[in-house]
Amino acid sequence: MPAALITGGTTGIGRATAELLHARGYQVAVTGQNPESVARARRELPGDVLVVRSDARVLADTEALTGTVSERFGSLDLLFLNAGIFQPAPVADVTEQSFDEQVDVNFKGQFFTLQKVLPLLNDGGSIVFTVGVAARRGSPGATLGAATRGALLAMVPSLALELAPRRIRVNAVSPGATDTPLFDKLGVPQGGRDAMRANIPFERFGSSQDVAEVVAFLGSDAAGYITGQDVAVAGGYGLGV
């Protein structure tokens, strides 16, 4: 039975991916940092899904996570590095604390999770990063968030080459505007949502399930000859501009 680890897997895209992979026969482990979302995931996800409270900023948590996953599954076939935070702000308003927090979670945390978990990944396995279209297309107020996610994207080609001898594929998925709890958390008004939707050729926001399907594909044998790529899941956002 294949096994997958999903960081940031208690809500939104990560949780939808966990549910989809579990339904397709995977053993699944998810991480989260917020106690409430972790508790909710433990209640609502299937009982055999491993839910681990782990803070990507804390390397001791990452080492403990690696040990827990090793003990439970032995090895992994898919590592979905999805954990991240988004604190939109103009450059002039970014504080050192906000800068450090986003770098620590979005880049440093994912880098060292990869480093610690990599020995558990089977040859022929798959690594998928969540990046986002803002890393390529740009969005006002997203400079820091795009930079920290974009740092992951910059790693993908080199990692793909480094891990090719083990036939481990390394790819990224870049959601566009996706209807997740983050929208409500950020307090995006209806007018702002309408303006965003108007720039999407498909005239709708993406869903967590839309992204989960792509992650599941990239982790499957059907994507066995795909590595070093970034797949946009954005309903055509940015085309024709």
Automatic annotation (TrEMBL):
Assigned protein family: Belongs to the short-chain dehydrogenases/reductases (SDR) family.
The protein's name: Short-chain dehydrogenase/reductase SDR
InterPro entries: NAD(P)-bd_dom_sf, SDR_fam
UniProt entry tagged with the keyword Iron: no
PANTHER family cross-referenced by the UniProt entry: OXIDOREDUCTASE, SHORT-CHAIN DEHYDROGENASE/REDUCTASE FAMILY (AFU_ORTHOLOGUE AFUA_5G02870), SHORT-CHAIN DEHYDROGENASE_REDUCTASE FAMILY PROTEIN
GO function terms (MF aspect): oxidoreductase activity
SUPFAM superfamilies found in the cross-reference section: NAD(P)-binding Rossmann-fold domains
